[in-house]
């Protein structure tokens, strides 16, 4: 989840500095009386603002199962968007009850056709369509085929290069960079993941950064490439921040993802893929309560977001000051960081796989969290969906279909059936 999309609702009632919405945290709970008067007063007026929701205002989508009208959304990690009230993509990644089943191959073919109609070459279109349809198969709808609408419009508007020439630069035995030539970030990130395989085996550890590109999509796409080859993988990304004096501290985190993937044997793969600030974006209904009950969770999330921006952004050449950015394509405002570790340098891979398998089986025997049906580590729910939906078809909700139909009409491609 990735760095993932969120769905925003109407404008907020209260705004902080610079028009950025803020949430008010008021003193409450059984321990409030123990605080000093000054402390209580400070708590009563303490504000926590969530980072901007980065979604494409040109693409109208409602959260599946939501009861409000369709509202603007911006593709994740788009810093030019200003904050609005929002919901996290958790509900977007839950199939609605009125979904229809669509074969993944139909979604892939439609997406490839839309991309080609928007100027992308056939090879890149096929690769990206496969990655997006694969996310749908795993139930990661926020980063699946619905994203093609934003990508197609950005390429047609000249914000992104539809035909990038991706190339390796600054190469050394264990490190390298990949220049995305102003196109979408999927292509340099995927190229980096592939290049890391042999370098990590040769050197034990290998690291890459990608630069000069747009959205990389779900970070788990690339960590999965590494883990499926028997390596431990870590992936993050950063984007152009627009921080101004007086804005809320949470804006430092941006809205980027982390993904860790670890090889297993016979058990489902372990893939952790999450957005650093999910459940804490502007207007999220749970944000104030999370901060009241567990402020450390919020501060850790901000710290995780800062890691994204530091190694996925600044190390990849995205400047802290947007005035210093020099871009041919304005949408190429992101970078990424990928790391691969060869397990064989520490122990035989089969021994490690066996340990992971035993760990997963022991986890299965634990009591699940309240309201969940089973105790599963990250990656297993997606693995189960992918296996089931490959035969049953992807459950596509009406809002998802509406997005696909709209972009299909714009570029002259019939919607998937």
SSE blueprint and pairings:
Layout: E1 7-8, E2 23-25, H1 37-44, E3 46-48, E4 59-61, E5 71-73, E6 86-87, E7 100-102, H2 104-117, H3 122-137, H4 148-156, E8 167-169, E9 175-179, H5 186-203, E10 205-213, H6 220-228, E11 231-239, E12 257-262, E13 270-275, H7 287-293, H8 295-314, E14 334-342, H9 349-364, H10 380-392, E15 394-396, H11 398-411
Parallel strand pairs: 9-10
Antiparallel strand pairs: 1-6, 2-3, 4-5, 7-15, 8-9, 10-14, 11-12, 11-14, 12-13
Helix pairs in contact: 2-3, 2-4, 4-11, 5-6, 7-8
Brief descriptors of the model:
417 residues; alpha+beta; Hypothetical Oxidoreductase Yiak, Chain: A, domain 1; Ribosomal Protein S8, Chain: A, domain 1; 3 domains; disordered N terminus
Polypeptide structure, described:
By secondary structure, the protein is an alpha+beta fold. The chain has three domains: 7-87, no CATH class; 100-157 and 394-411, Hypothetical Oxidoreductase Yiak, Chain: A, domain 1, CATH 1.10.1530.10; 167-350, 2-Layer Sandwich (Ribosomal Protein S8, Chain: A, domain 1). The protein is built from eleven helices and 15 strands. It has a seven-stranded mixed beta sheet with strand order 8-9-10-14-11-12-13. A two-stranded antiparallel ribbon has the order 1-6. It has a two-stranded antiparallel ribbon with strand order 2-3. Helix 5 (186-203) links the parallel strand 9 (175-179) and strand 10. Helix 4 (148-156) runs parallel beside helix 11 (398-411), helix 5 (186-203) runs parallel beside helix 6 and helix 7 (287-293) packs across helix 8. The longest helix is centred in the C-terminal third of the chain and has 20 residues, at 295-314. The radius of gyration is 21 Å and the shape is globular. The protein starts with 6 loop residues before the first strand and ends in a 6-residue tail after the last helix. Residues 1-88 have low confidence and may be disordered.
């Amino acid at each position: 989840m990735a760095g993932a999309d969120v769905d925003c609702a109407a404008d907020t009632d209260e705004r902080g500095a610079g028009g950025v919405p803020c949430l008010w945290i008021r003193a409450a709970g059984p321990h409030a009386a123990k605080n000093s008067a000054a402390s209580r007063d400070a708590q009563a007026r303490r504000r926590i603002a969530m980072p901007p929701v980065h979604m494409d205002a040109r693409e109208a989508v409602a959260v599946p199962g939501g009861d409000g009208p369709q509202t603007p959304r911006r593709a994740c990690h788009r810093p030019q968007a200003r904050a609005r009230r929002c919901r996290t993509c958790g509900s977007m990644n839950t199939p609605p009850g009125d979904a229809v089943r669509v074969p993944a191959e139909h979604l892939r073919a439609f997406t490839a056709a839309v991309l080609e109609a928007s100027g992308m070459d056939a090879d890149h279109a096929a690769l990206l369509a496969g990655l997006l349809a694969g996310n749908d198969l795993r139930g990661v709808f926020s980063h699946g085929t619905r994203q093609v609408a934003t990508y197609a419009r950005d390429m047609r508007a000249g914000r992104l290069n539809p035909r990038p020439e991706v190339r390796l630069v600054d190469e050394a035995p264990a490190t390298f960079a990949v220049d995305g030539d102003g196109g979408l970030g999927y292509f340099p990130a995927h190229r980096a993941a592939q290049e890391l395989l042999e370098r990590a085996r040769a050197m034990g550890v290998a690291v890459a950064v990608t630069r000069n590109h747009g959205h990389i999509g779900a970070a788990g796409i690339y960590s999965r490439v590494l883990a499926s080859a028997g390596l431990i993988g870590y992936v993050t990304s950063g984007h152009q921040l627009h921080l101004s004096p007086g804005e809320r501290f949470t804006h430092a985190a941006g809205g980027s993802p982390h993904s860790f993937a670890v090889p297993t044997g016979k058990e489902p793969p372990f893939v952790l893929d999450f957005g650093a600030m999910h459940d804490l974006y502007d207007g999220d209904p749970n944000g104030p309560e999370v901060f009241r009950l567990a402020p450390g969770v919020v501060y850790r999330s901000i710290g995780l977001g800062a890691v994204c921006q530091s190694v996925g952004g600044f190390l990849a050449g995205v400047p802290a000051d947007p005035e210093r950015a020099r871009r041919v394509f304005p949408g190429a405002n992101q970078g990424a960081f990928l790391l691969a570790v060869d397990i064989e340098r520490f122990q035989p891979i089969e021994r490690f796989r066996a340990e992971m398998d035993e760990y997963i089986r022991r986890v299965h025997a634990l009591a699940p969290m309240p309201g969940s049906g089973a105790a599963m580590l990250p990656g297993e729910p997606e693995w189960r969906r992918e296996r089931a939906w490959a035969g049953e078809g992807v459950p596509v909700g009406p809002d998802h279909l509406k997005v696909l139909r709209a972009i299909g009409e714009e570029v002259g491609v019939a919607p998937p059936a």
